[in-house]
Request: fold
Amino acid sequence: MRALAIDPSLRSTGWAVVEEGARPDQFRALGWGTIRNRPDLRQSWCLVEIRRRVLELIEQHAPDTVAVEGVIFVQSYPTAIVLGAARGASLMAAAERGLPIHEYAPREVKQSVVGRGGAQKDQVAFMVRVLLGLSETPSPDAADALAIGLTHLRSLRSPLRAAQGKAKEI
Reply:
């Protein structure tokens, strides 16, 4: 199973491609990075670029599924709207290619990777590096995407998850 994981943001959307290994606890990162949009680029063009790049990633890596971070609580309505739009651009690209999409709450991702739902970004990045045997610590956005991918693939193998039902498919 190969998953494209996305941590959406208007200016720096994190992405990662993670694949299951032969053993139940073995996973491999095939690629990761950040879709960066210039600060002077209009929001509408940022959304077009996010969708275009996610479609490119799907073509390049041929994932079986897509995992995305769920909507988070933010104190600012404008921020929530922009975040939702960036998320929508990513979801649209995956849906256009007919891929199943699953979402995970940020606390669930942190719990899965670090063991604590309130973990800091640097803790997530460190654990992702360790769990995937990376030679360097990825950027925060890419690390979050790697963590989302790991959470998704682990959830597919979890007997507890199977008993509770699968992750929320959207």
Remarks:
- Strands lie at 2-7, 12-20, 27-36, 65-69, 101-104, 168-169.
- Helices lie at 43-61, 77-96, 106-114, 121-132, 140-157, 159-164.
- The CA atoms of residues 38 and 55 lie 19 Å apart.
- The chain has one domain: 2-169.
